[in-house]
Amino acid sequence: MTNTQIALIQIDNYGPWTTTPEPRREVDLQTLQSRLYADVSQLVGNREGYAFFARFDNLVTVTNGLDREAHRLIQTSLANRYPVTASISIGVDPLPIEALGAASRGLQEAGSAQDSKRREILSGEPLSEDDRTDEDLQIAHFDVNNATEKYTDELNEFDTFINIEQGYAELMRHMRMAHDSLSFFVGGDNVIAVCSGMDKSDYHETIEHVRDAVDVDLKVGVGRARTAQQAGMEAKHALEECRENGSLVELGW
Ligand SMILES: Nc1nc2c(ncn2[C@@H]2O[C@H](COP(=O)(O)OP(=O)(O)OP(=O)(O)O)[C@@H](O)[C@H]2O)c(=O)[nH]1
Predict the structure, then answer these.
(1) CATH for the stretch 137-251
(2) Coiled-coil region(s) at which residues (predicted)?
(3) Where in the chain is CATH 3.30.70.270?
(4) What are the start and end residues of each CATH 3.30.70.1230 domain in the chain?
(5) Model-level ipTM above the cut of 0.95
(6) Protein residue with its CA nearest to atom 9 in ligand 1
(7) What is the 143 CA–ligand 1 centroid distance (Å)?
(8) 169: number of CA atoms within 13 Å, CB side?
(9) Which residues line ligand 1 (CB under 6 A)?
(10) Mean pLDDT by 10 residues, the chain (253 residues)
(11) Which partner for 142 in 64, 111, 183, 191 could form a disulfide, CB atoms 3.0-4.6 Å apart?
(12) Closest Cα partner for 65 from 4, 108, 117, 154?
């Protein structure tokens, strides 16, 4: 059984900050957001976690193995680097969507995202060391088949982007609705999903669903481990096996 630990990182009172005392230059906001993602990716990644940019003002991170102190350190480090602060809320559940739900509630109960008094909340309890297992995380790495030949080398970049994003939109919705799992676009033609205890037939069914709905062909490698990076690396190796065997689904265990 999986046991996913999600930490939701939310910039405090960001909406008002972007327009006070007057609207800030969009290029500066874009720069801040992409740097914040880079820093969070490294701060969480150095501790074996994964970070996803999501909407940039709300970042979803997978932090199995990080205790409360490690989350506090990340929060402090962000406050020292940026003109904004962030709140962090931790949720743990066998189902990734429920873990994120618990993390989201932790912030919502502490106040609005646009409440100037709600600052640097740290809520929720991480998994205790005794409760951790080597099967806590299931990570799937999805990839569009022959994206280069079919899209990149054939279409203009915007039409390529539409095809890839349509595949992603259908995949993320299906994984959330049918499998309680969280999928994130990570660049190129790749989507990484934090999954519930899905089996091989669930992945075949998902790939078939996306093909039928939007005519985008996927393959997927899946890994299982106690940290996101170990599971993610196993998934990448499994994806290489798909490439070698021509298979659509490979489990790394
Ligand atoms: N984030 C991320 N992006 C990747 C990774 N591998 C490839 N990409 C991106 O995906 C693009 C397409 O690469 P591939 O998926 O290898 O190419 P392809 O044409 O789809 O070929 P096949 O996957 O073998 O069917 C690359 O230009 C990268 O932007 C990865 O492991 N992580």
Answers:
(1) 3.30.70.270
(2) none
(3) 137-251
(4) 4-131
(5) no
(6) 188
(7) 7
(8) 9
(9) 143-149, 186-190, 236, 243
(10) 96 93 95 98 98 97 98 98 97 98 96 90 96 97 94 94 97 98 98 97 98 98 98 98 97 96
(11) 191
(12) 4
